[in-house]
Amino acid sequence: MPGGNLPSEISVALARAGLVAVPLNVRLTASEMIYILDHSETRAVIAASEFHETLHAIRADTRIEPGRYVLIGEASFPGGIGYESLIEQARGTHVFDAVDPGETYALLYTSGATGQPKGVIRSHAGSALMALATAVEMGFSRTDTALIVMPLFHANSLYFASTFVHLGAACIIDDRRSFDPEGLLATLAQEKVTFTSLVPTHYIMVLALPEAVKNRYDVSSVGKLMISLAPARQDTKLAILDYFHNSELYELYGSTEAGWVTLLRPPEQIAKLGSVGREWDGSGAIRLLDEHGREVPGGEVGELFSRTPYVFDGYWKNPEKTAEAFRGGWCSVGDMARRDEDGYIWLVDRKSNMIISGGENIYPSEVEDVLGEHPKVQDVAVIGIPHETWGETVQAVIVLHDGQQASAEEIQHWCKQRLAGFKCPRSVMFIADADMPRTATGKIQHRKLRQRLQ
């Protein structure tokens, strides 16, 4: 839970010491944080000053012992140790044993598609191989300066930060709690940044600034930009290239488990708009399989399996889900896709109806479980609906029990007490049970519901 430029310092120190990092999404609720801390068997927490209050509130419900809370800034509660004080107490230079490449580097918890979040096991070797692949494919070197905007509990930021640390290049961490579009431009100009990775929402907010504001900053140093985590429209991409006139634009598809899978390169951005590109150079291969494990013909939809040299080592304490993720040496996170005649990959369903809002992954089933506990709710479906700024927002479609009445505000308040804010429905619709689209076995058809409401 660190802030400032310390995340990179702490991440490198943990890796060098052979300790396992568990980046924690600070937007989670207290119960979600407690689950991850306990499930991961975390034995110490490092937290920035703005998170001391949250940590103090939950510490009685965790297994972490007093004296294992390292607090950046002044220690604000009993049992906490100041980060700087801890460093000052160190005895000279400690020589660490060499870390085996196959050992675990980090546990990265994904949002729970079904049930609780899963801890993705990433090795030191996998991290190094992905850094090498990124540097080779995108032409990075130690002379680059990267700006990491998304928090380091996101795999996207963690993987790019690791690349620049491996190269010995400058890596700037933007620790603002909320995205500041003008602040971004100021940092790009002041630090002569050469690369950053943003989600479409970030770009839209930057481009919406008044021309006088945008013209105030020299962003000519930016030579490469990444856009990912959600689809981007043609007008957005063209506007990005117009404003960042010295930059090339890339788009990637990947996952916490598989790492980078495909890349849409600069010359392909408009010609293959909507595609996520082809395999990264030297990173492996892709297969699209039907439910029987057979390769589907070109143009048809299949489940996307990738085989990369930096694939994850399984889910922590979850052998069943680990087995489900692999077919031989091939890994899948449940995305459905098709391949066109030129070999480009086009995603059809993103992670079993996953919603991507402002770059955050939201799984409908997690929200549906919470809504289903409401005493007035008989059945519910949660879908993503298009939003001009955030890409998608969460919509709940609810069937109430006979004779019950509820308001959208009542449902939203129920969710806000049980879920992180970004997972809560922005809109609520009530329908009759007969109007909920279902399969012959009674399963709700989310795709048909989206088509009906969009």
Q: Tell me the overall shape.
A: globular
Q: Which homologous superfamily in CATH is the superfamily of the largest domain?
A: ANL, N-terminal domain
Q: How much is the radius of gyration in Å?
A: 23 Å
Count of all domains: 3
Question: What CATH first level of the largest domain would be assigned?
Answer: Alpha Beta
Strand residue content: 15-25%
- Structural class, judged by helices and strands? alpha/beta
* CATH topology type of the largest domain: Rossmann fold
Q: Major sheet: order of its strands?
A: 7-6-8-9-10-11-12
The CATH architecture of the largest domain can be named as 3-Layer(aba) Sandwich
Q: State the end-to-end distance.
A: 38 Å
**Overall strand count:** 23
Mean pLDDT: 89
Largest sheet: 7 strands, mixed
Percent range of helical residues: 25-40%
Number of DSSP helical runs? 14
pLDDT < 50 runs, ≥5 residues:
none
Q: Which features characterize this protein?
A:
454 residues; alpha/beta; GMP Synthetase, Chain A, domain 3; 14 helices; AMP-bd_C_sf; medium-chain fatty acid-CoA ligase activity; ligase
Walkthrough of the structure:
Helix 5 (124-138) crosses helix 6 (155-167), helix 7 packs across helix 8 (200-207) and helix 8 crosses helix 10 (234-243). This protein is of the alpha/beta class and 454 residues long. The longest helix has 15 residues, at 124-138. It starts with 5 loop residues before the first helix and ends with a helix. It folds into 3 domains: 6-19 and 96-339, Rossmann fold (3-Layer(aba) Sandwich), CATH 3.40.50; 20-95, no CATH class; 355-453, GMP Synthetase, Chain A, domain 3. Strand 19 and strand 20 (360-362) form a beta hairpin. It has helices at 6-17, 30-39, 52-58, 83-88, 124-138, 155-167, 181-190, 200-207, 211-214, 234-243, 319-325, 364-372, 408-416, 446-453; strands spanning 45-47, 69-71, 80-82, 104-110, 118-123, 145-148, 170-173, 195-198, 224-228, 248-255, 259-264, 278-279, 285-289, 302-307, 326-327, 330-331, 336-339, 345-349, 355-357, 360-362, 377-387, 391-400, 427-430. Keywords: Ligase. Residues 366-443 form the AMP-binding enzyme C-terminal domain. This is AMP-dependent synthetase.
